[in-house]
Structure prediction request, 299 residues.
Amino acid sequence: MEEITRRASVMALKDLAYRAHQWTSFHPEKRGEMLLNDCEMELQAYLAKLPAEMHEHFEQRYLELYAKWLSACSRCISSFITGPAKFPVKRAEKLNNWERGAREKLENWAKRFVDRVCNPTQHRLTGWAEIERLQDKVEKLTALQEAMKSANSVIRKKKLTEEEKLDELVALGFSEANAKTLLEEPQYSFMRKGFQQYQLTNNLAKIKDAQQRIARLQNMVDREDAEGMVNGVRVVYCYSEERLRLYFDGKPDGETISKLKKAAFKWSPHNGAWQRLLTSNAIYAAERVLGVEKLNIGK
Prediction:
């Protein structure tokens, strides 16, 4: 077997990799070594296409999905290993489908991530790194929302045994320990087994917040930074960094500093300016601090 230097994060999947073919191979550890090598090589190939600042984020999410795929593999069974007697054909087929689905999810996510970053039209995006992070966050939260809904659906199926429910929950990507916890009787009588409604509601709110943030960032895509002088203060709309900056000629007097702080402006030593997130509220606050009715920057 070819010697490949694996990073620590890949080696952390060793136990999962060794168990991945425990019921489908006579040599699960050898197959596990091959899986670890494949994981390292695939990860290297993807990271080579991405800017360095995105490596850590991509690696973490990629290995999370790889681990879920390995977990799905470990549930698969083969009659050659378990024996043909009373072999559960339908159950084996369902488990195989779940394994293929987990692998497709891993590959599709990685390809979409790389495509978004490497698409030439996207390099001009203002705050692209933040947009990419938020897009990935929405994908993860959406996947979580679907997983919670699917888990509740499984848990509330009256025709399934507890063992069958456990199998289906693990196939959905939950660890066996978490799946057992979901199947336990809740602490309070007003609660139901599985995920509670408030958990679904809160997660959905996070999705909407992230989507609104993405929409706001995308509205700045084609805008160039703008600036102008207002009452002796240089006002800059820095769309590239989402900041409204006020450059004073020297240190402002105590009263002005007090107004700036009350208006949520903070001193940035790096930029030599008082700044806050560029929003309509920030513009209104700057107008009050500078004593003007309208800034009219970049008009």
